[in-house]
Amino acid sequence: MEITFNESFANNLAQALHQPVIGVPLDLQLGDLHRFENAHASFWTLKARYDQDQTNPDYFSTSTQKIEEVQAAIVAGEPLRVWWSETPDDLSGFYWLCDQLKGHLNQLSQVKVPMTAPKIGETLGFREWANLGEIGVDEIPQYLPTTKDVSLADRQVYEYVWANLLAENAPVRATVNGHLIGVDEAFYDGLLVIPAGQKWSPIRIVGETLGQYPIGVPDWWYLYRLDQLSR
């Protein structure tokens, strides 16, 4: 079973590999990590208020359903392959998955996808992706040879890392020099592109910020922070 933490990438992966993929939209870089036990946790209300793409606004049910699919695959003893990157969402998701496998002997392999790459063609350039969902279907097969097994010993270490994340339960988790650390809510506020003397709409500010800093922070979080800064 293929697992990833980005629904758009899950769809692309399913097309590229012609097999089932579980996309688990956990948003683990943001908010209370204990929210999956509580449908009334403030995180769900916050996201529902600021998320502009509300194709399925019942975020709690969507997330818990996907979690149950992963747990069912684990109980069934299926071999799992997880696709992830060093974005905070993916890194947190990888640790979470290792914790879910605690006490189980499923084979676990991983494909760690880089978020930057040189662009070679008629013109040279540098490509940056904000998240795995930006990687096209045709580009996916090139990463298959990088598949590696995750040993039981390594999984136990990552379980410990997840336990620490749960215990800290910071408002935000960010990747700094490859390290996942807990930070406060205002951590990304300095990135918001707000030009002096110009009255840009929040949507434009967020769009400019996402374009200038492709680091995987969702648009709804920036909208929330802009709202907080305006008060």
From TrEMBL:
Pfam families the record matches: DUF1835, DUF3658
Source organism superkingdom: Bacteria
Domain DUF3658 span(s) in chain numbering: 144-229
InterPro entries tied to this protein: DUF1835, DUF3658
Domain DUF1835: 2-112
Identification of the protein by name: DUF1835 domain-containing protein
Organism: Levilactobacillus acidifarinae DSM 19394 = JCM 15949
